[in-house]
C-alpha cells in the first residue's frame, strides 16, 4: 500500500532544490493511506497559500513555493537579508508524486489570482 505525505517546509530556498539536509526544513507532515485524501489536503493548503502569499511558483506540477517579498531572514554567512520560502510537496512512498492528466486538471491547474 502506498504511503502518501503532504509536507510543508520553510527555508531560504524553494522546495525543489532538495539540498542535503532539506528534511530539516519540514515544519508540518500530513500522512495518508488514501491518495484522494492526500490530494485534497495538498489542494486545500495550496489554495490557501495562493490567497495568503502574494508570490508563488510551481515546478514539476507539484512542488509549490510561496512567499511574501517582505518576509526575509538574516543570513549571517552572506551578511544580508534573504527571502524566506514556504514549500508544499506531495510524496508517494517518499518520492515526489507525478500527477496524471486528470489530477493535474483537478488539483494542480494553476488558477490566476
Task: Describe the protein's architecture and organization.
The protein is of the alpha+beta class and 113 residues long. Helices cover 23% and strands 38% of the residues. The chain contains two helices and eight strands, in the order E-E-H-E-E-E-E-E-E-H. The strands form two sheets. Strands 1, 2, 3, 4, 7 and 8 form a six-stranded antiparallel beta sheet that branches. Strands 5-6 form a two-stranded antiparallel sheet. Strand 3 and strand 4 form a beta hairpin. It is globular.
How confident overall, as mean pLDDT?
93
Q: Low-confidence stretches at least 5 residues in length (pLDDT < 50)? A: none
Percent helix? 10-25%
Kindly provide the radius of gyration, computed on alpha-carbon positions and rounded to a whole number of angstroms: 14 Å
Provide the domain count: 1
The total of helices stands at 2
> Would you tell me the structural class of the helices and strands?
alpha+beta
Distance between the termini: 37 Å
Main sheet attributes: strand count, strand direction, barrel closure: 6 strands, antiparallel
User: What is the N-to-C succession of helices and strands?
Assistant: EEHEEEEEEH
Overall shape: it is globular
Share in β-strands:
35-45%
Number of strands: 8
Amino acid at each position: 500500500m502506498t504511503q502518501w505525505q503532504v509536507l510543508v517546509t520553510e527555508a531560504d530556498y524553494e522546495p525543489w532544490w532538495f539540498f542535503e539536509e532539506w528534511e530539516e526544513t519540514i515544519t508540518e507532515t500530513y500522512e495518508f493511506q488514501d491518495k484522494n485524501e492526500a490530494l485534497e489536503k495538498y489542494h486545500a493548503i495550496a489554495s490557501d497559500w495562493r490567497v495568503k502569499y502574494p508570490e508563488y511558483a510551481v515546478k514539476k506540477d507539484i512542488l509549490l513555493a510561496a512567499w511574501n517579498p517582505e518576509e526575509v531572514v538574516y543570513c549571517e554567512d552572506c551578511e544580508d537579508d534573504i527571502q524566506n520560502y514556504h514549500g508544499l510537496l506531495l510524496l508517494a512512498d517518499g518520492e515526489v508524486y507525478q500527477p496524471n492528466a486528470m489530477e493535474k486538471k483537478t488539483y494542480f491547474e494553476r488558477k490566476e489570482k
